[in-house]
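Re: [help] complex structure
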Amino acid sequence: MDVWSLSKQGDHPEDAAQDGNRFLAANGYMGLRGVPEEAGADRFPAVTLAGVYDRFQDRWREPVNAPNGLFVQFFLDGLPLSLGKAEPLMHSAQLHYQNGVYHRRTEFDAVLIESERFASLAQCHLLADRYQMTFRRDGELTLYTGISTEIWDINGPHLFDFRHEQGEALLTEAVTGEKHITVAVAQAVRPDFEAQEAFETTAAGSFRVLRRAVRKGETLTVALFAAVYTSLDHPAPGEQAARLCLRMKELGFAACLAAHEDAWADVWRRSLVELTGDEEAARALHASQYHLNSIAPRHSDAMSIPARGLSGQTYKGAIFWDSEIFFFPMFAYTQPEIARVLLKYRIDTLPGARQKAASYGYRGAFYAWESQEGGQEGCTDFNVVDVFTHRPVRTYFRDKQIHISGDIAYALRSYYEITGDRSLLEEGGAKVILECARFYISRASARLDGDTVDLNDVIGPDEYHERVANSAFTNAMALHCLKSALMLRELFADRPEWFARLLKDLNYEQDWALIPPLIARIRRPRLRDGVIEQFDGYFELEDCSLDDVRARLRDPREYWGGDHGVAGPTQIIKQADVIALLALFPGDFTDREVADNWQYYEPRTEHGSSLSACMYALTACRIGKTDEAWELFLRTANIDVSGSSKQWAGEIYIGGTHPAANGGAWMIAALGFAGLRIRDGRPELHPSLPRQISRLRFPIVWRGERLTVEVTREGGRFLRG
Amino acid sequence: MDVWSLSKQGDHPEDAAQDGNRFLAANGYMGLRGVPEEAGADRFPAVTLAGVYDRFQDRWREPVNAPNGLFVQFFLDGLPLSLGKAEPLMHSAQLHYQNGVYHRRTEFDAVLIESERFASLAQCHLLADRYQMTFRRDGELTLYTGISTEIWDINGPHLFDFRHEQGEALLTEAVTGEKHITVAVAQAVRPDFEAQEAFETTAAGSFRVLRRAVRKGETLTVALFAAVYTSLDHPAPGEQAARLCLRMKELGFAACLAAHEDAWADVWRRSLVELTGDEEAARALHASQYHLNSIAPRHSDAMSIPARGLSGQTYKGAIFWDSEIFFFPMFAYTQPEIARVLLKYRIDTLPGARQKAASYGYRGAFYAWESQEGGQEGCTDFNVVDVFTHRPVRTYFRDKQIHISGDIAYALRSYYEITGDRSLLEEGGAKVILECARFYISRASARLDGDTVDLNDVIGPDEYHERVANSAFTNAMALHCLKSALMLRELFADRPEWFARLLKDLNYEQDWALIPPLIARIRRPRLRDGVIEQFDGYFELEDCSLDDVRARLRDPREYWGGDHGVAGPTQIIKQADVIALLALFPGDFTDREVADNWQYYEPRTEHGSSLSACMYALTACRIGKTDEAWELFLRTANIDVSGSSKQWAGEIYIGGTHPAANGGAWMIAALGFAGLRIRDGRPELHPSLPRQISRLRFPIVWRGERLTVEVTREGGRFLRG
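Output below.
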């Protein structure tokens, strides 16, 4: 097994949606789906842009896909030699995790095609492709290459007023419907052969046509350089794009590739987890780290990563709690400057969070559940389509998933604890924590005739149970947020005036006084035989098995949650909820408590979210269930290798890559197997290696210091550098 | 048109479910469905018992149907002469509203059958029937009469361990499954002819077989006397039943009928609304008053009336808010001793209401939404069956319809205001009001950072919108309840020690102090152009037409409400909600406010509940919309004449008679058209006669004084006596 690549033999158009994700080439600015160069819309080609959103009519807002500047299709004597139009003798695709290069090889009767392409990690606006044809008979070649506008859109179209320029660089510009953002794609080619050149513009795009006679045995190569800019990057995106692709053409494919590979080498040097003992696991970990690293916003100083990365428009390209809870840790421990960029996005979007809180009649910061640019809420009131009526169903993710604000405060505090860097708190982070705490103060309900305070009508991580009271996870997150607010004063004890000023600017005096009583009064979960009740009344729900619940489905694509779903009235949960709480606050619970809760909740968990397995694995490590942890690790780490994850929620397509699981794989390895934990402000190792692993080795940065963690069956240790 | 009866020509087995309701003969103790004597289970025969409930397995608890003691079927020369087994030349049924006598006439080739029967209003355990056959040819008659156990059960069976005795009286006893209540039915017959007598017991019941030769032109008559007792009435119900039917047999059919008719004459004397000018309306009003009077619990001192009366097991035979809000007024104004019995039921079931409040973590009295014996909650967590998945759907009627406690307090206060009788408050009514107020105190939510208090997560009268905040209706009812609690002290100013004692016994000191601030702080509804917002955020819901919403249905039997229903995400409401508030608190709103709200809400109301039209009609009268009021009145009053009301909610059968609409018809006539209203402790008339009515005349009892209200086009006046 090649632990550094993913391959697939044969042409399987029916797998196009999944394979586009599994073979994704991305660089944080954009994601190029893993489809062949000649793919039409039926194979879901897309160049998904980070942070560029659009709404078409009243449909969901979603990221914009740029036209595809790496389009190639050719004919020999008028016969098309393209997948889907001619039957290949052989076809294979391969993605190299080490350098993010996608390679395809297709054999027709008349020609052998090979190409390799990448989204440059050295130059984020660049896509490059080296396309090569070896002919097996003489004939007349007609090669179309250019900018295809036949791209995948879930809730589109998003681009209008196309304008094409043709010359040494092809340039296509269009504007989005909602905000009139210009998207510009330019393409230049560098063939290693002479040909007659012409141009064509059709409804499908803008193309350069190269014609010439070819001879049997002859090999022709053409290098393609596509550049993408938008008016969010530069006031003249078209000029920029044209200039860049021409410059890269000058430089040549090999030089572009070398710069790209250098950038990847640096990423791996800083983050690679070496796993010895099991090749499948090693490969899965490489895949996870490749995918997550490939979509990190290295080009921005304030941006986050969507729940399906840059693999398409699924989940509206929005930022979820995945960002803070699931992939933040890998970045915080290996590339803290990226962790900072993720959190800076939240700091910058505080106004949106305040607006959202106000729109529901609350104060403080209620972050978007599905955050788009500016913190705008992408989550609508309707997130599921009923498979029987085909009608949208009212869901409450947007309104009730209030743990999101606490999750962000949690990450801000973690960032400080891991990096020792207080500056992020100074540059807005402290304000965010205070505003999140204020939100919980205003969201809490007091009884007139009692002492406790409730957080009613919420949704915890387990989304199958909507509108519950006193979610154990949510209340704990709120509590942590309130305590973090108080902690700020200690942390800035050396800058009392600055802190006092901050409180004053926020008009926080009354709220500050409310925090300690709220901390004392906020409802703590009920315990039964050591098991934490997930929310008020959870234990009274029907206690049945996953199989029972599954047997009640009338359609395999039915949504399980809410009052209509099969899980809603039962104790069956979607994903780690109480277990996530135990995983995130390891110091607050004993091993025995972890064991009791794991035992109770695991059989009741559908793991219907890719976020689930990682939390179960982390806690399993702690209680010595290394076999279970191992199985959950493989499930998590392999998710974008196998492509076998859930593709539908009701009638909504939810496929794509899984950054949260990718980050989860790192967490299981580093925080679970190696047992990296912070106690009393120091990192510790509590290894819990599954028997399949003989050694784990990975770099971290601890408060500015580079360390290598090494864990073997003999134990774990930190090495300098 | 005979304004005092309902007739139907022809045999229509397909209408059996509705006709059984429309032709119901009842007496408060039991309801005998309007089906022919020979009807088998396919025509839904039933003798539904008031206040006797049973659960079979895990199905819904529902009232028990007794075996049918008026069963008759006969054969001539071995040929069955029964509807459904032979084709009649002619068949008709007739129900006389004046005396509650059901008459049937059926002509076969060989025989003419006529019968008249009733559920005695003079002797509540008695059913009697005079059955007559006139033969058109000679032959051998075989007549089966007895106690049929082939009865309709929705969630049954409920009766087990059948025991039959045969002799001069047939006696059938059985016990219910859940609580082992004995149900005894006895039957005696008095034929006016000689016959050979034998007995048969089969799986279908216990029968007397009479055989004799008959001659063409001969008429034979047999009088049937059936008596029903349960062990809730008497420790030896079988003996009692046998004794009663034999005594009645002695007395004879004519004497039984005369006593029954006298009782009805008294009821009409006390309650009849004479409407002059429109026969259809007069008949509809007679029908409404007949149905409601026929099911009044005259035999009990503490009992209420189920939402579908005694017409079957629909809605679990449970008591809803219908009782206090919709049929309480007719009784309070015409037969206050019955109004008292209805409220005594609530006083007696206070322990159940306290238990329910406690089960949700609250204090005080949270009355059952669907109250069965002892105040037990009959409403389950699942009240709708999805038509697509056939799965029960979680609904929140039980948990969230908290206005029920306020409705009961409202009726208790009205009872005092109408009758001037303080004794009911002394005998537990005051305690109920205080406990309901306590429930609202404990149910309210205060913000830590604000002054207002919310009633979150409730359902108002419009059940299509579940789990809303600050329902205008609910908050107003809670407010009224709190104010009524304070009023008690003034009312009992002459008995300060008694009242102080009551508060002390209830340990009410702290709560008493909380009432005034809660009254001040409870959230008042938002207004927009004079329109009261039904609940927080209602105005932000999709504003579309009823037709739009109806067009979204994929199945005509779909449930409209909840997050999956077509109405849920829109401003379309099931029934009067804000309008009910205006109707119940006429003194709190100006005519202009009523007009603005009527205009807004009427087109947005499906009137999907039979409770809706009456509230709209009452308010329409007030603002001079007499044409609209007239149309709504006819719809309300005709509901059990036409039988055309909604029969299904999802997959649940909801047919039956409509006591709330029956009471609503009285309210529209008396409180709407005549405009009877209490102001400053005195009754007033504000007539608003539709042009179709030339005169209205009806008796009331005002604080012990008998008055006659007379309204003509010239105006209204009170006459003594």
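Chain A has two domains: 5-269, 272-720.
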